[in-house]
Design goal:
Layout (H helix, E strand, L loop, with lengths): L4 H24 L3 H18 L7 H33 L12 H10 L3 H12 L4 H8 L3 H23 L1
Helix pairs in contact: 1-2, 1-3, 2-3, 5-7, 6-7
Length: 165
């Protein structure tokens, strides 16, 4: 690979400016992860716009600001859609009152699980998926999906055993 002085200038420029850009991105976003994502997207966009040259710092700050606003709006919009959908769907599990309170207690126990554990239990028990399929959907290794299921079942046993013993 041939020596490219533009790449060296770009790397040096990013090394000099990265902390200030990240500080600004932190001020414009809601979390460290969001700030890092916005900064990466902004630097990539600025590099492309400058056609491989070192971009103007003001342009990068403006891009960070715009991308942070867009990210915040997208996050708020997604939260509103999810809340509206949750309101429309009502209870996840419809209790069968002929069986007494059992269904309600179990449904409440499942709802109390952390999201990643609840998701695994629902996919395994109600959807009948394999751990390979669950791992593919959730983006985790198969042993992690299996462990999550085991932890969820253990928590449900702890929660439900005193009530049904």
């Amino acid at each position: 690979m041939a020596y490219d002085p533009t790449t060296d200038r770009w790397r040096q420029w990013v090394a000099e400016k990265a902390e200030a850009f990240l500080l600004y991105a932190r001020q414009r976003t809601r979390s460290e992860e969001d700030a890092r994502d916005v900064l990466q997207e902004s630097l990539t966009e600025s590099w492309r716009r400058a056609k491989g040259q070192v971009p103007d710092a003001a342009l990068v700050y403006a891009t960070i600001r715009r991308r942070a606003i867009d990210h915040g709006r997208a996050t708020d919009s997604r939260a509103r859609r999810e809340a509206a959908h949750a309101d429309m769907t009502g209870d996840w599990f419809q209790p069968d009152f002929s069986a007494g309170d059992t269904h309600t207690v179990v449904a409440d126990a499942i709802r109390s699980l952390p999201d990643h554990l609840r998701e695994t239990v629902v996919l395994k028990l109600w959807s009948g998926l394999t751990f390979n399929e669950i791992a593919g959907i959730t983006g985790v290794p198969v042993p992690t999906a299996t462990s999550r299921y085991r932890y969820a079942i253990d928590r449900l046993r702890e929660t439900l055993t005193p009530q049904f013993a």
